[in-house]
Amino acid sequence: MVRLGFIIGFIAFIGVLLSGLAAFRVHDQELTVDGIALARAIDIHASLVQDRLTERELLARVASGLFRAPSVIKANMLQPLRASIYAFKTDFVVASWVARLKPNELDAARTELLSAGFPNPTIRNYDDKPQDTRALNQPIDVLMDVEPRNAETMASAGRALDQHPILGPMLTQAMIEGKPVASDPLPLLRSNGPVGVVLAAPVLQEGATQPAGFVTFSYELAPLMLANDDFSLFSVVLKDPRSPNGELIANDQGIVTARTASQEGPPPSMTRTVTFGGRDWQLGYYAKTNAVKRAEETAAVVAAIGLALTGIVCGLFGYVAYNNLRLSREIQVRIGFERRLTAVIDELNHRVKNILAVIQSIVTRTLRHGSDIDVARELLIGRIHAMSNVVSLLSESQWQGVKLKGLFEARAIPHAERIAVSGPDIAVSARAAQSLSLLFFELASHSDEGLSLVGKHPHIVAHWEVNGEDPDTIFHFRWEEFNTSAATRREDSDFGVILLDRVAPEALGGVSKRYFTDVSYVYELTAPMETVIDMTERDRTEQFSAPPRAGR
């Protein structure tokens, strides 16, 4: 009996020891898994918030860039931009044109506001008190136009904002820095309106060093914060830049309120910084569940089960060992997957930002150099279609490259039916495909501009070839338009000249030239094949698309 008791006691001791070890292990793993899930969810949320803010800052830059030699005293400055700013679908509360007016321009501005139908055309302070124009000796910032126009927004026209405690410093900073600047949080439209921020972009006249005014966009704070989802693992707050301990939080109805962070309460689980309007904004994330308490409860359950099963401690040990091994592998796979997903999202963000930068450059240069708005609009639509076509082709190939002949499809470039295409159907890299797609569109869009020599449309031959031996192979492209000459073919646009002579050759690391023969117009591009196909970019894309491997 003594020996049996000793054996039972030894088995009980082993069972208690193993149960405690298993409880500790499960507790640690639960904390690790919960921490990984929370951190990943926060990273995704912060990335989405940054993307939304980037879209809205891009809208301000594009809108300010669309102004050409603005007349500051006009009350309909936003009329040409209405279609463009709504096309971005950024859900702004109100867009406005704020003009910098000299004291001798205030009477003309008052007359302009009255003729535009604004209910109160008097030039007045931000608090609706009349402006003493006789005491002015320097320009003031006056709200001259709003969008959308309704009874609430139109009532604010004619207010001078340079003395506003929040908007005034924002406009001054935007004027000094020459780029979009965001304000501190403030109520929009009225004193009890929704809390939001205002983004101001300065507008420069051609050849001027000081802005003629500002394009501003107001946004509610709750949609920008993407707060707060009932099913999320956390609640998000915005650190109030006006108070070191202040926080702004939105409820499920999207109403934002301010609160003071408790010094005795738990700090945010994590913080992330996003950039908007030349400022860094800090988001605080509070976990909705207590991971430590849940891990302790799980560990207690495991320990209780271990004590109850002391009679079969060997089987329990085998189960725990197998379970630990499985959990360890799952955690390693999840960690590897999360890291890989982060890398893929970073790469996607990089490519999207590059595409947005290209589109912004296309829009700015097309509208800047277009002499006729209808011609500029057609060129702009065509160039964006060309970019859309190449992105679609790259998506179909999982960004592994595009067949060169696919860039001559009728949906991508005009007059494709008159182009005789010849050459090896090589697969070019994503970067080269974007440059070549814009290049082909630019050449094709100018191929029918002038009268031909014989009264017929120009006949176009696009031919390329690959010469030399690896690794020094050379890509040579030749575009030739017959039945045209320097006298009949309209000169390439400023954007086209930059693209043909500098952007496309530099993107491919090559050189180009264009000239007229007796009966044709010729454009030639020569570049090393290693930049045209770019195996480094293709290999990196293949690595991103490969499935993650389980750790050993």
TrEMBL record:
Chain ranges passing through the membrane: 6-24, 298-322
Catalytic reactions on record: ATP + protein L-histidine = ADP + protein N-phospho-L-histidine
Protein EC: 2.7.13.3
Protein name: histidine kinase
Example of a GO biological process term: signal transduction
Annotated CHASE domain residues: 142-225
One Pfam family of this chain: CHASE
This protein's UniProt keywords: ATP-binding, Kinase, Membrane, Nucleotide-binding, Phosphoprotein, Transferase, Transmembrane, Transmembrane helix
Locations listed in the record: Membrane
Predominant place of localization: membrane
Class of the enzyme per the UniProt entry, highest EC level: transferase
A GO molecular function held by the record: protein histidine kinase activity
Tagged with keyword Secreted: no
GO cellular component, one term: membrane
